[in-house]
């Protein structure tokens, strides 16, 4: 069993080659124009090496969905990971009221991830996660709509290979789908 909770050396120059290559591939990934990606402070205790990105879907300066994608690396690997790299994703989007009551929404939300990974050619294994529907009602002086419904997806999967750029593209596409945007290259018809 690999030794855990060992402080890692500071600085990317000392990072293992596999992790450094994966981080470089994230930096060159091309996502949809509606998605803003920025590096954020990664969690420190999930693996010896971590890298995190925050994603925001913006349309006309309105935030439609948010997410985090965290790259984990443990040179010793974990049996459950089936590898030494792992991606952990968190996505959140407000839902249309009609969609919020759909009893199949968790299955649909999960399929958005699996389908996005397949469409981007992001080979993976050992995928798992949860999809949660929440409904909130505001009272008193709280600003915003009285009722809102949200979808949250938490997932992790093991990428095949060191180039994880397709995984970032897939995760950004998942966020766009959750936000209700049409697929890339498709223009939605205006409502009449």
Give your account of this protein's structure.
- The protein is globular and about 50 Å long.
- Strands 1-2-3-4-6-5 form a six-stranded antiparallel beta sheet, covered by helices on one side.
- The protein contains four helices and six strands, in the order αββββααββα.
- A hairpin with a 2-residue loop joins strand 2 (49-59) and strand 3.
- Residues 1-10 have low confidence and may be disordered.
- With 192 residues, it is α+β, with helices and mostly antiparallel strands.
- 23% of the residues lie in helices and 38% in strands.
- The N and C termini lie far apart (62 Å).
- Helix 3 (105-119) packs antiparallel against helix 4 (165-178).
- It has one domain (15-178).
- N-C termini distance: 62 Å
Enumerate the spans where pLDDT stays under 50 for 5 or more consecutive residues: 1-10
Q: Tell me roughly what share of residues is in helical segments.
A: 10-25%
Count of folded domains: 1
Taken from the alpha-carbon principal axes, the silhouette is: globular
Element layout with pairings:
Layout: H1 17-27, E1 35-40, E2 49-59, E3 62-78, E4 83-94, H2 97-100, H3 105-119, E5 124-137, E6 147-159, H4 165-178
Antiparallel strand pairs: 1-2, 2-3, 3-4, 4-6, 5-6
Task: From the structure above, extract its key features.
192 residues, alpha+beta
Short description:
With 192 residues, this protein is an alpha+beta fold.
């Amino acid at each position: 069993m690999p030794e855990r909770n060992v402080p890692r050396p500071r600085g990317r120059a000392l990072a293992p080659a596999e992790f450094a290559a994966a981080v470089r591939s994230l930096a060159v990934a091309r996502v949809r124009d509606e998605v803003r990606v920025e590096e954020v402070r990664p969690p420190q205790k999930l693996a010896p090496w971590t890298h995190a990105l925050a994603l925001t879907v913006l349309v006309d300066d309105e935030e439609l969905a948010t997410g985090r994608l965290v790259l984990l690396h443990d040179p010793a690997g974990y049996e459950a990971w089936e590898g030494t790299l792992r991606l952990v994703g968190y996505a959140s989007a407000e839902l249309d009221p009609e969609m919020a009551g759909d009893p199949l929404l968790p299955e649909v939300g999960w399929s958005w991830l699996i389908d996005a990974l397949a469409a981007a050619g992001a080979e993976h294994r050992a995928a798992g996660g949860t999809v949660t529907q929440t409904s909130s009602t505001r009272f008193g002086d709280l600003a915003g709509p009285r009722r809102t419904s949200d979808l949250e997806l938490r997932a992790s999967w093991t990428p095949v290979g060191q180039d994880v750029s397709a995984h970032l593209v897939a995760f950004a596409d998942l966020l766009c789908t959750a936000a209700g945007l049409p697929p890339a290259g498709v223009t939605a018809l205006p409502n009449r």
